[in-house]
Amino acid sequence: MELATARVNKPRDAYPWRLVATALSFALFGVGSLCLRVLVFPLLACLPGGVERHQQRARRTIGWLFWRFIRFMRVSGVLTYEVVGAEGLGRPGQLIIANHPSLIDVVFLIGLARNANCVVKQSLFDNPFTRGPVREARYIGNDGSVQMLETAADTLRQGQPLIIFPEGTRTPPGQAPAFHRGAAAIALRGAKIITPVTISVSPSTLTKHEPWYRIPRRRVHFRLHVGADIDPASFAALGPAPVASRRLNDYLHQYFIKELAEDERSTARPAP
């Protein structure tokens, strides 16, 4: 399945309006997060079911709202997007691995895989706007500990899909992604399948340390491509855990470098 919106490449592409629409988008995200914490989640807690059922409701609610947020940004002219292979996301025990060029990559992926768990920055648990959603959904804080790795692996063994960004932070513009070995270690400990998702953003926006109001001169286009599944068992058979983890991490790193380079070449080609 492919989800796509038209790409626009005018020289300034309604710059003043896009700046206003970007501000509205950030305001909407902040207010929506507070409403989830104060109004929506307390109401969901009144519904029947235990902790696991409440967690599932919270994740699906967040995912549904995240995708509506993406569509709002599209309709308001902030961005366009293209998603190839979305139907491959959200399967039991699936580790979804993605590169991280922009602030809203996680919004796209949670919006597409609404039942998934996610490894997120530890600071989100202390942020007044985000701590409600990440706690209610029981997302996993990336504190860099061995316990975090085991918690993530246990999530996969329980049959939950899991989203992770092996870089741990956003990729600087113009640089290739640099993967830490934690994602590979989690995959070997608990994943049934690994599914890579390459994310391309043209022109780059919302990178690390870049303020929200520094928008590009052209409308941003996001492209998410869901790749073929990778069997972690084929790497686990290569040797002891540290060796297998290193080889899997190297494979993933090279895979993403190759796929992102191909995406860049495709974007640079003139339209027929």
UniProtKB/TrEMBL annotation:
Organism of derivation: Pseudomonas guariconensis
Domain Phospholipid/glycerol acyltransferase: 94-202
One function term, GO molecular function aspect: 1-acylglycerol-3-phosphate O-acyltransferase activity
Listed transmembrane segments: 20-47
UniProt pathway: Lipid metabolism
Entry protein name: 1-acyl-sn-glycerol-3-phosphate acyltransferase
Swiss-Prot/TrEMBL keywords: Acyltransferase, Membrane, Transferase, Transmembrane, Transmembrane helix
Keyword Metal-binding: no
SMART domains in UniProt: PlsC
UniProt keyword Transmembrane helix present: yes
Pfam families in alphabetical order: Acyltransferase (PF01553)
Origin: domain of life: Bacteria
GO biological process: phosphatidic acid biosynthetic process
